[in-house]
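Example 3.2
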Amino acid sequence: EALSRETSAIAAGDFSQRVAVVGEDEIADLGRRFNLMAQRLEALYSNLQRQKDQLALQVKARTRELEQERAFLAAVVQQSADAILAVDEVGEVTLANDAASALLGYPPIPGHPLASTWPQWPDLAEQTRSAGRAQRRDLQVDERVLALALTPLRESGGLVVVARDVSEERHLQDERRELDRQLFQTEKMTTLGELAMGIAHEIGNPLAGMKAVTQAMQYEDDIPLGLLEGLRRLEREIDRLGTFLRSFHGFAAPQATRPQACDLSALIDDLLFWVRKELKGRGIGLVLDVVGLPPILADPNALKQLLLNLVINAIHAMPEGGTLTLAGAVKADRMGIEIRDTGPGIPPEVLPHVFDPFYTTRVDGTGLGLAVARKIVLAHGARIEAANRPGGGACLRIDWPLA
């Protein structure tokens, strides 16, 4: 009866019970064994309870640490200047910080498809998953450039996206590259200018002497007609070389500018006096949009030479006729001037070299017209670029400071 009673107590979890052992028979021996079992179970249970209490303390401490880490990470994510997004395997946003809301232009709620804002997202996500590792990509969204860091989550198939608007940084980098290119171009032009001045001097003086002798010989008595014709041809060739050297000198000589307030409309009107006949002869129509513009700061002679070079280039680009457009528009403290033609445009392989000296695609060209134009532009603190128009033809754009 005692063994049965104490066994029930142990089954209920009470290991402190013992049976009274009386006698030396088999039942007494069973009682002693029962008490030994109960003692060992009690010791084991006590040890397990101590371990349980220790584990509970450790779990509590670790939970507190994890909560602190979670709060810290949440603060870092929320206060980060970079946009941080968690996107699931189907492309829906599951987490977004305040910077992400500012970047996207609206608070992304869970379940919002990211492709509705970034149409390129499905391709980016697939490429990142295929690579199996973090990727860095630039994303063009409207007029902005976003730098993305994409990290795939292998278990869930989602991605973590860290995004930053780097439009201004890219713009500054482009400006820096353009300044470096202009500096290199200026150094190159200076070197070529020194070389050109030396060549012009060395060739110009002998040419002047040759022309004087040729002219004098034509007035000799009894000169054979054949020789006279030869001398006249020689004089024409000397004049042609002289014209070439003068264009050489315009490229090489320093541009001494005397900026003043200039009326662009009046300058263009004066310029067109010299080219109207050629425009009419080639069947080229003229469109002017330069009336009512404020004055710009320029040396009038240099600006006239610049515009003349560009207009002549545009005329030569339309041997079968077309339309020449001269337009101006003010933006802030600058004026944009455009010379547009309806010719075949500039071949893509030629476009990067149009302002290089001595680079020309015309048989009778010197390759100095646009080089001189660029030199004048830079001397005035302005900018010039060449581009092809979407509808056909070329466009020379000049960004010029207002007076």
